[in-house]
Every structure is written in C-alpha cells, then in structure tokens.
Design a protein that fits this description.
Length: 282
C-alpha cells in the first residue's frame, strides 16, 4: 500500500529522530530479516517501501512516545505531553488526513503490540544488575576502553573481538574552524579500522573523566548504556574535549562477565584544523 505524500513526509521526519542503532534493526524487524541496510537513508527508504501502511511503522516499539511528541511539536501541532503513544498516533493520522486507517484499527494494533516482543529485541538478555554493580561496571569499562585507544595499533589489544559483528559506530569530529566530519560504519572490523585511522592520524590520547557527568544504566532488555566525557590530548597538550556513549550486550557464548560493544557514538571537539585533503581521506 503506497503512502500519501503527507504520510511519507511525516514518516520520514519521524524516522530522522530515531537513532541509527535503533533504525537499522527496525528494518530487519519489519522485513523479517530479509532486507539488509547499512545507513540511515537506506533504512528509511526500505521502511517506506516495505511497510503495509504508516501504522505498520508507527506501532513499532522503536518509535517511542517521545519521538512522536517531538515530531508533532516541530510540526506545530498542538499536543499535550500527557498523551500516550496511541493518542499521538491518532493525532499523526489526523494531521496527515489519513482516512484508510480507522481509529479502531489503531487501537487494536497498539493493544497487540503491548503484548508482543519484536524480533530485534530477542538478542538482549533480560536480567538486572544493581545500581552499585552498574556503576562499578561503567567505571571499569571507561578505564579499559580508553586504555585500548592508547594501543590501537596492537591487534591483540584493540581488535574486532570487542565489538559485535553488526555493531554501529558514529564518530563526529568538530574542529576549531567550524568543520564537522562524521565517520559512520557498521561492523566490528570496519569500526576498528576507522577508529585506528582517526587516532593515528591526529595522534590523540583520551583522558576520560570518571568522576563527573558519568552515567551507566541498563534498559529493560539488558542493554547497558554508558556515557563518558573527557579531555583530548595531542603531544601531551590539551587539544579538545570529547563526549561518548556506548551500548553493551552480554556475550553468553563466553561467560557471564564478558560484554561486547553493540553501538558507539563519539563526538570529538578539537582545536585541530582539517584541510580538504585530510577531510576527504575519511
């Protein structure tokens, strides 16, 4: 079923609010794993092409209440923060003037979703760690990971074994002259190669701040989310700051204490200046 122009524009805008590490698995869920994509635009195109209707996308658990609310507010649609997700979907349909999907169909589909588990969630282990254990885990991870970056050229130390094979990594480098370079890769080997290339090129060393603005939490599926900020050094002189967030999933094939990186997002704000030749090399 083809979407109307307002529906397609609306769905595109909504999907832009969904993180890449959620958007790409959503394609796999909607297509039963038959379609593989590698970037945000391909993911959006696939979702628009293979969805039964706009509700087929909006009902998904990756499309959260917060995402819908943000879209409606940016579209200048009057909406209350007290609305639940089903009500927000009704408002979206009304805004797009969709008549082919009844209110009863929306209510029924949303009730069904409340009792279902999407296939992309099944890989996450549903167990719980205490707040104290999580904090200790996050601190140890921060020390471990940024120590790895000081040894990026040693495969046995910094290698693909620390990442899931379908891991998603995004690194943004913002320079003092206003340039922004974004490195986006999917895969364990690709991630290691891209990080190694960037660290070697700029000769950076990272000093994480594990005492302030540090956070480690676990969602309901068992995905551990860690946020770490810190200072970037070059030739032992401060050259900028960084922000980073990680998603970790336990590897049951090894042991209870072994975790691998599912997604990585880093933002480096540096005093370096990039030439066009350097920028194009990434």
């Amino acid at each position: 079923m083809s979407l109307s122009s307002p529906e397609e524009q609306g769905i595109r805008a909504i999907l832009k609010f969904v993180p890449q590490y959620d958007l790409i698995p959503l394609v796999s869920t909607l297509t039963n794993g038959l379609v593989k994509v590698n970037n945000i635009e391909d993911a959006i195109q696939a979702l628009l092409k293979y969805c039964k209707d706009s509700l087929d996308i909006l009902k998904r658990k990756k499309i959260t209440k917060e995402v819908l609310f943000k879209y409606l507010k940016e579209s200048n649609v009057d909406v209350s923060p007290k609305c639940d997700k089903t009500e927000l979907i009704h408002i979206c349909m009304s805004h797009w003037q969709v008549s082919s999907i009844t209110t009863e169909a929306i209510d029924w589909e949303m009730a069904e979703m409340d009792t279902s588990i999407e296939s992309s969630d099944l890989i996450l282990q549903p167990f719980c760690l205490t707040a104290e254990t999580l904090m200790s885990m996050g601190l140890n991870f921060g020390k471990w990971f940024y120590n790895l970056l000081d040894n990026v050229n040693t495969d046995s130390v910094f290698g693909p074994q620390h990442f899931w094979s379908d891991s998603i990594s995004n690194i943004t480098i913002s320079t003092v002259n206003g340039q922004d370079i974004t490195l986006s890769v999917i895969g364990d080997v690709q991630t290691v190669e891209k990080i190694r290339q960037a660290v070697n090129h700029f000769q950076y060393r990272f000093e994480p701040n594990l005492y302030k603005d540090f956070n480690c939490d676990m969602d309901g599926h068992g995905l551990v989310k860690i946020c770490i900020n810190g200072v970037i050094y070059k030739h032992n002189q401060p050259d900028g700051v960084f922000q980073s967030s990680f998603g970790l999933i336990k590897d049951p094939a090894v042991c209870d204490t072994n975790w691998k990186i599912k997604y990585l997002e880093m933002h480096w704000k540096v005093n370096s200046v990039l030439t066009n030749q350097i920028a194009s090399s990434f």
